[in-house]
């Protein structure tokens, strides 16, 4: 079949991390996105798990490798290894539990301490299906995201609302940065800096990419 690529073949590999308090739905967002599965009785994640899914953006195959760990301190794996090489993050809170929203600032600080300042971060208010229990308004979520220059979306892993959109948006924004890099490299004659096929793009190790395209301060 024309254009068919087996699963192992991809043009870009992007590492994403899921962070946020225990029970906000990180693992279910991941299983919804990668397997279209949801589990009402899922157990707290122990250690680190990851899952992958490839999608097509701009006629390129982008493979997302998404890491998931426990929100609860005592189950958490070594932090620096978890964040290493991440080019995107989904910071999740539970719209029915205000405390999980109050902790978002803490998660953001930890993320900033361990990753390049230019990585793509999306704030996610999950469990919007529980309409009668909402304790964090959309406006509050949006306002915090704007203040911290984060993307923002409300999702439900249960009914699948916006799950696809959230991951796709993060991956597309990363792709835009990386593909712009490729175009620039081509136009100024330094094509040798083009990412090779299947190369893992690591914003942290090459923040010059982001600086070169003039998107970011410092
Ligand atoms: N109603 C509803 N329940 C959800 C949703 N997402 C997750 N849950 C439930 O919330 C509970 C916790 O979900 P998990 O995905 O395990 O949460 P987690 O963030 O991975 O938790 P840790 O691994 O402990 O950090 C489970 O009972 C899920 O079924 C959602 O969108 N709507
Ligand atoms: Mg989990």
Automatic annotation (TrEMBL):
Gene Ontology BP terms: intracellular protein transport
Membrane topology qualifier: Lipid-anchor
Listed GO MF terms: GTP binding; GTPase activity
Record SUPFAM superfamilies: P-loop containing nucleoside triphosphate hydrolases
The entry's keywords: GTP-binding, Lipoprotein, Membrane, Nucleotide-binding, Prenylation, Protein transport, Transport
One Pfam family named in its UniProt record: Ras
Compartment(s): Endomembrane system
Cellular component terms per the entry's GO annotation: endomembrane system
Tagged with keyword 4Fe-4S: no
Keyword Transmembrane helix: no
CDD domains in UniProt: Rab11_like
UniProt xrefs under SMART domains: RAB, RAN, RAS, RHO
Ranges in a coiled coil: none
Family named by the database record: Belongs to the small GTPase superfamily. Rab family.
Name recorded for this polypeptide: Ras-related protein Rab11D
